[in-house]
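As practice, study what follows.
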Amino acid sequence: RRGDAVTADRPTTEPGGLHIPGTVAIVLGLVVLALAIASIPMIRRLLRRRRRRHAHGYAAAVLGAWDELVDTATDLGQPWSPFDTPRQAAKRLSRGMDPTVAAALDRLRRQVEQVRYAAAPDSGVDPAVLEERAAAVRADAAMVCSNLRHRVRWQTRLAAYSWPSSERRRQRSSSRSMSPGAFGAGAADGLVEASSSGRAEKAE
């Protein structure tokens, strides 16, 4: 037993020759694990941004640029309502903005409206022209996002990068949609619809 106690207290030797007591190694491991878990929102945010920048197709590029603007504004604490139209959101966001940046935001807004509401916004347009338009949209979005970052303090920019609220909000929304209560409510709605449909068929 005494030999076991001595062995348990014996320092562990790392490859570099550094002697770390077992308890300290455990604490360091927990710290590293906690940091890894805390960095998940940041990693997801970076991957999402990269995917949007490399979206294929004009419509995907436009919608990706707008979504990136939405997430950037959210991360930086800018007022943004999911119920706003692109026009309403752009009007609110452009207050106090440099005219050049405001013009870029307005161009992006018009492109988003065209993609969302036009029947076929890229129909009959040469692919090379569409690619140029997509590049211009990405450049406008990058200009607006950069301006938003420079309008806030560096502490806010750091928090937006390391602990993005857009990803945390997305995670909360996903958790609520997968909760047992939400599933039960969805199932109940489905049963009501099925019952109503069955009664309608019988009536016919």
